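Lab meeting, item 3. Inverse folding demo.
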């Protein structure tokens, strides 16, 4: 961002020139989707996928290849990291294109592909097909994230950096909690599902009424933080097949992505105050 007074180049998203103190003009860009809209769509896809996968706890896996605990968890972690890496790459390479896209087209495309990918992943017993469904969620969500990141000042801005750091710290904290107190997360499934459904309905009403939803970001961040721990715990309850590792990775990926979206919205609101 170039200062019109002194001509110095400033970091994207800066409000004042670092060199002369002049107030910088702010370029208003319409986001491809609000944090609530993007996260609500991801939440709905996440809920639908859980319902379909729950039946697999009692499914017949005779004849299926069972992985060792180490191999199963390596695949699980690798698939989650793949999705996050794709999102990071899109934030650095496709942010400008995502911002220039028609918001309704991008958001509608994300909803359709996210639901399609979730259904494919949940219904398939093939790891390859489930991974295809996984990427049908990852890529469009990555474009929505890229647009949101760019609007918040770009990948190098303080707002995005803080949201990334807090997301990483919370994720690591939940992983430590699940290792130390695994039984703590055992009974959270029903309560978290009820809270998530209530949040989706509440935000749908608020969106229709055009009411600001800053408080719901904090509630959603808490829900998705706990969901990270719960989904890691639940991933260990399934039979250790390659397909189940991919399916469980989708849940954990969506938890982390939704948490980042909400923290990004919170950080941006604080920065604008």
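The presenter then showed the designed sequence:
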């Amino acid at each position: 961002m170039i200062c019109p007074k002194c001509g110095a180049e400033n970091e994207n998203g800066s409000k004042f020139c670092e060199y002369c103190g002049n107030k910088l003009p702010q370029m208003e860009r319409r986001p491809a989707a609000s944090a609530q809209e993007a996260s609500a769509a991801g939440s709905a896809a996440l809920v639908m996928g859980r319902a379909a996968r729950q039946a697999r706890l009692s499914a017949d896996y005779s004849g299926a290849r069972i992985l060792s605990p180490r191999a199963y968890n390596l695949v699980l972690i690798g698939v989650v990291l793949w999705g996050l890496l794709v999102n990071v790459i899109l934030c650095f390479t496709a942010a400008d294109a995502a911002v220039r896209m028609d918001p309704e087209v991008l958001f509608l495309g994300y909803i359709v592909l996210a639901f399609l990918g979730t259904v494919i992943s949940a219904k398939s017993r093939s790891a390859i097909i489930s991974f295809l469904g996984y990427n049908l969620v990852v890529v469009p969500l990555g474009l929505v994230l890229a647009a949101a990141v760019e609007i918040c000042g770009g990948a190098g801005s303080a707002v995005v950096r803080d949201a990334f750091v807090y997301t990483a710290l919370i994720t690591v904290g939940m992983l430590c909690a699940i290792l130390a107190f695994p039984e703590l997360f055992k009974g959270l499934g029903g309560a978290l599902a009820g809270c998530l459904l209530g949040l989706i309905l509440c935000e749908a009403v608020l969106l229709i009424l055009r009411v600001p939803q800053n408080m719901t970001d904090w509630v959603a961040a808490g829900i998705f933080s706990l969901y990270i721990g719960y989904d890691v715990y639940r991933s260990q309850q399934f039979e250790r097949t390659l397909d189940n590792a991919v399916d469980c990775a989708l849940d954990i990926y969506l938890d982390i992505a939704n948490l980042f979206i909400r923290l990004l919205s919170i950080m941006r609101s604080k920065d604008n105050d």
